[in-house]
């Protein structure tokens, strides 16, 4: 079953007087449980596509559906609820709240979902233990390394059991050892919990880990390779 469906998706931006086409007609289906990398040179449209799939931006034309819900048919409040319940985000810049501890950052999404404080604390501590940060739960982002902050961001993205996690250049600020460790963690989440992951990346290591590689060029899909069938 397809979790994500993009049909004839077009998106353009204005840079001064110039119109730049980021996506020129994308057709893409991603099955539940996928582990997919969107790759390509800067300006190929991969981050734009990721943002559109996450409902953070809207296409100029075409349609996007996640878990059978077409974004076109949703009000902003309904889209926000779908994102909250179904989609986890891992941003390149981490986007952690600086005044909150690691555990409180992980709890934040669950608080928005209305999870009780006792359950939030329990689940946050469990997931931080799983990502190897059990002893750092009480530290703020400024007291953590880049790799540790990224792990907190991953924990926050997956703690609420989303159907889909979107990761924008998740290894960009990490050394190769931390990057590999993070990818192995996400691969385990994918296998054990059937969470679907979609990455935008320049990193060959991410491409190697991915089960499916979608290469973008000039806003179009240049290659779509299912590595599990090789």
TrEMBL record:
Belongs to the ABC transporter superfamily. Macrolide exporter (TC 3.A.1.122) family. Keywords: ATP-binding, Nucleotide-binding, Transport. The keyword GTP-binding does not apply. The keyword Transmembrane does not apply. Residues 4-230 form the ABC transporter domain. Gene3D superfamilies: P-loop containing nucleotide triphosphate hydrolases (3.40.50.300). InterPro entries: AAA+_ATPase, ABC_transporter-like_ATP-bd, ABC_transporter-like_CS, ABC_transpr_LolD-like, MacB-like_ATP-bd, P-loop_NTPase. One of its GO terms (molecular function) is transmembrane transporter activity. GO terms for cellular component: membrane protein complex; plasma membrane. This is Macrolide ABC transporter ATP-binding protein.
């Amino acid at each position: 079953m397809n979790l994500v469906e993009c049909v004839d998706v077009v998106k353009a931006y204005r840079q001064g007087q110039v119109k730049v086409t980021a996506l020129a007609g994308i057709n893409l289906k991603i099955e539940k449980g996928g582990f997919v990398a969107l790759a390509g040179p800067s300006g190929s449209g991969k981050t734009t596509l990721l943002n559109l799939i996450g409902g953070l931006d809207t296409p100029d034309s075409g349609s996007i559906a996640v878990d059978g819900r077409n974004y076109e048919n949703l009000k902003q409040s309904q889209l926000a609820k779908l994102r909250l319940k179904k989609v986890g985000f891992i941003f390149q810049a981490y986007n952690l709240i600086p005044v909150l501890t690691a555990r409180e950052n992980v709890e934040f999404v669950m608080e928005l979902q209305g999870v009780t404080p006792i359950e939030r604390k329990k689940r946050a501590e469990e997931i931080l233990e799983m990502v190897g940060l059990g002893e750092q739960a009480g530290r703020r982002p400024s007291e953590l390394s880049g790799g540790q902050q990224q792990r907190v961001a991953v924990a926050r993205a997956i703690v609420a059991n989303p159907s889909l996690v979107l990761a924008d250049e998740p290894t960009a600020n990490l050394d190769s050892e931390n990057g590999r460790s993070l990818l192995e963690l996400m691969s385990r989440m994918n296998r054990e919990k059937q969470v679907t992951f979609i990455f935008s990346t320049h990193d060959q290591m991410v491409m190697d880990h991915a089960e499916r590689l979608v290469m973008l060029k000039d806003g179009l899909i240049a290659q779509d390779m299912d590595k599990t069938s090789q």
